[in-house]
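Objective 1b of the project was to move from sequence-level analysis to a structural picture of ligand recognition. The entry below was assembled by the postdoctoral researcher (A.K.) and checked by the PI before modelling. It contains the amino acid sequence of the target and the SMILES of the bound compound, 2-acetamido-2-deoxy-beta-D-glucopyranose.
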Amino acid sequence: MGERTILLQTKSSATRFKKMTNAFISVKWTMILMLLPVMLSLYKCMQKTVLDLCELDSCPLCYGTNMCSEIQAGNVTLQYNTLKSAFYNIFSVKNVYFAKCGGKNCILKKLVHRHEFLEIGSHGDTEMELVKYLMSVSDIKKFKICNQHTAEEFLKQLKYDDIRHIDILLQLNVEPLLLQIFNKENDWPIPKFYGSCGRLAIMEYAGKDLNTIEHADWFKRAYVAHKILEAAINFTLNHPVFRLYLTDISPDNIVVDDQLRISFVDLEHGILNSKLQGKKNLHASDHYLDENYAFSESEICHSDISDHNIYSVCKLLLSQFALWPMMNKGLLHDPPEHVKKEYSNLFIDIEDCLHSKEGKDRFLIADHILDNLSLLLKNNVF
Ligand SMILES: *[C@@H]1O[C@H](CO)[C@@H](O)[C@H](O)[C@H]1NC(C)=O
Ligand SMILES: *[C@@H]1O[C@H](CO)[C@@H](O)[C@H](O)[C@H]1NC(C)=O
Ligand SMILES: *[C@@H]1O[C@H](CO)[C@@H](O)[C@H](O)[C@H]1NC(C)=O
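Corresponding predicted holo structure:
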């Protein structure tokens, strides 16, 4: 048995914080009216410009420079048009800012806090040296590259002007790198990555988090569930070179836009392995009744293919026993009576998907879930 990693603790404090902020945002209008003058005065005295946020003086290199001219030209502007965006932008909540990039909604992320920032070092200026660095970090990091071969392929696939940007991102937050490799142009369900300037990474605004559709029409939720499970399989199977196992799947890290398109955001936690031929040495995630959600990084890395993504989606999002921060009774809560009757298999399959053990193939169960969802969506126009 390899070591078990429970990432839930570290994750949940961030999630709890976000929940609290969301709760804060949804308090009654009276509260809002009381806060408004405070907000306005804060807005006046804290008028930040996007260029200030880049902190080019403290970090001229950082994540990149390709968005600097856009920012200097005034094409990226902070938005205060919704309560949430004003709140985030004024108080620097989670270091995320809502902005407009040349007319389109976008997100500016500072990626890490200042103290983390001071700890970074330099690990060389060749890909070889960075591979060596990646293989030498023994402590569990948010992002794990399984082996040297995978690390070499990963660096080979990245495009960059200055390898020092890659060095810094590997240490701080790999999201911009993953957004490049699993890019939107190739139809990966992720936000479009626009680029960086100093301490800012800039990406498309891709929608609201999954909890915002808690009370949406059941068939809309079924449609989204189908997309999410399909994406989980795609991250496992579809990239020509890699398998990406997501280790921070949560309702906050998947967003949905007005057309019910999904995107995985905050892609900084994951395990990257390279693809080998065939499906031999399948790793099946164990389900523990006594643990909330656990997985073994080393078992996943030592397999050729793992059902980790499918297990995580079933367990954390779809199951009626999905835990907080997922909505009560999971994404498919309260189905219409006729669906419950005609597609009873679907709900059995979803629970089977998480309890599955002794070689019951989760890939097969996932296919059944997807087929049944497609069929019922075809038969019920929404
Ligand atoms: C800023 O936006 C304008 C209008 O969309 C565009 O013509 C210009 O090229 C942009 N500037 C930069 C530096 O990208
Ligand atoms: C998964 O991959 C298939 C095949 O490339 C594609 O048609 C589908 O849209 C993808 N699904 C998602 C949610 O990305
Ligand atoms: C629905 O699920 C059942 C049970 O897993 C499976 O036998 C059946 O093939 C699925 N239906 C479709 C249309 O795929």
